[in-house]
Amino acid sequence: MHKTLITATALTGLFASPLLAETIGVSIPAATHGWAGALNYHAERTIERLEAANPDLDFVLTTTSGPSQQVSDIEDMVATRNIDALVVLPFESEPLTAPIQRVADGGVWVTVVDRGLAQEGIEDLYVAGDNDSFGRTAGTYFAENLDDGAKVVVMRGIASEVDNERVAGFEAALEGSGIEVLAMDHGNWNRDTAFGLMQDYLSRFPEIDAVWAADDDMAVGALAAIEQAGRTGEMIVVGGAGMKEMVARIRDNDTTVPVDVTYPPAMISTAIEMTALGVSGAAPVSGEFIIASELITADNAEDFYFEDSPY
């Protein structure tokens, strides 16, 4: 977190001077769930702020509901807007890898956000939360707070490098703990999908001690299914990303939601700002910028609750 604050301060100072005329394409998933909604919120406001401060800086923002549309959007940016840089959060890793490789091969600066591509080394800059830390932080909490032999169910996200890294970190933290993972299926970072998945888990397993949902939207869906089934009080639910609804539960000492794990959607702002600096040559920003996850507890929940946040 300290690294993030230092960089944000540096960016503010650098943007006091005009940047070169550049066109930057930004391609992100549509606001189909809370975290993506906040991602869109931060992207739009960052673009507005940078365009106001730098009249020669132009942006093309597209939002997508699937990988094929995202590929088409990016190809259109290159063909019709002649973009100098691309900031992209891949809807899925595998189908976007080859198209983004072609963009990079054409001389366009590429910043990949959050979901890594299936092949390393394509992008100039990678900005993301620490997905291993995200899963490991939740897993460590379980290992330290659940009894030996505790039974856990897991809700994975969309099949992607992000999901793989989160699950790997979670599983690594559980090694040797004696905790039993009953099932691990994809909830696609969607509360409705997670609601149905949790209903399935509840019908299959008479005893569940904890749910790990690798995203707060899925955690909300899981909580709704648990309440509907009348099994509140039997298990805890730990999600991630710092949704204010979840943070409020923690702050108010809801025993079903004891903790949460951070994963800030505002990382898109960092990615856009650093790309503007990198493509203009104003600062050397290539490489990786990783934001570690933190555990939100009743003791620090107030620090992570933002009333005006869209998420």
Question: What does this protein structure show overall?
Answer:
- This protein has 311 residues and is of the alpha/beta class.
- It has two domains: 2-129 and 264-292, Rossmann fold, CATH 3.40.50.2300; 131-261, Response regulator (Rossmann fold, 3-Layer(aba) Sandwich), CATH 3.40.50.
- Helix content is 45%, strand content 19%.
- It has helices at residues 2-14, 34-53, 67-81, 93-105, 131-145, 161-174, 191-204, 216-228, 244-251, 267-280, and strands at residues 22-29, 57-64, 85-88, 109-113, 125-129, 151-156, 180-186, 210-213, 236-238, 260-261, 287-291, 295-296.
- The strands form three sheets. The chain has a six-stranded parallel β-sheet, sandwiched between helices. A four-stranded parallel β-sheet has the order 7-6-8-9, sandwiched between helices. A two-stranded antiparallel sheet has the order 10-12.
- Helix 7 crosses helix 8.
- The radius of gyration is 20 Å and the shape is elongated.
